[in-house]
Fold:
Amino acid sequence: MTFEAHEDRELAGELATAAGQLLLEVRSGSGLEGKELGDAGDRRSDDFLLARLAADRPDDLVLSEESADDKRRLIAPRVWIVDPLDGTREYRTPGHADWAVHVALWSSGKLIAGAVALPALGITYVDDTAPIAPVAGLLPDPADDRPRVVVSGSRPPAFSDEVAEAVGGVVTPLGSAGAKAMAVVRGEAAAYVHAGGQYEWDSAAPVAVAQAQGLWCGRIDGSPLVYNNDNTYLPDLIICRPELTDPIVGVTSRYL
Structure:
């Protein structure tokens, strides 16, 4: 069965939104906390996404952070790449909005649909080219007008300060990969840089959304991001305004 691009995009957005709503219900109504809450959220969201994809796209394969890797995907024409709960630590920490749900679709060597839900903010972004007006909500109001470079709060790259200096900006820690990527999409940050460990599900949906908005996405050496590999480890990432690509890669490429 074949599907139009808008049908896959709509499904990605619908699934990310619904999984996010489920996670909010688990967060507020389960009585769980800490690791138990995070584990329950991961499991419930993964079960939901797998069941819906099996029903709505039965011929497609799925690569999920929370499920066994079905290697048939390596020869499949269409593979959904999902992170049922991106930012588990933030999800299980009261008051945090910087966690997300990622749903992306890969086909013929490229990402063809993607959605990132920010459930705590009640919004889902899809890979749509319609302009997104700058909006706050993920980051505190800036102290000045310098561009913000968002990085992992727990694993900031060694080059964070150098990148910020290269673009005249300031380093700002934030939670999940999806939240950091959407901070750039939303206009709250100018760039998101990461090194030191990620997998395909961490970046596939955020990259699909960011690329649709005209942002530059790639590896820290300037090479493209490639998905649906046998080894799903994809450790580093840059998402930035296009005009910042050269100064950022000029710094990060020295750290390979």
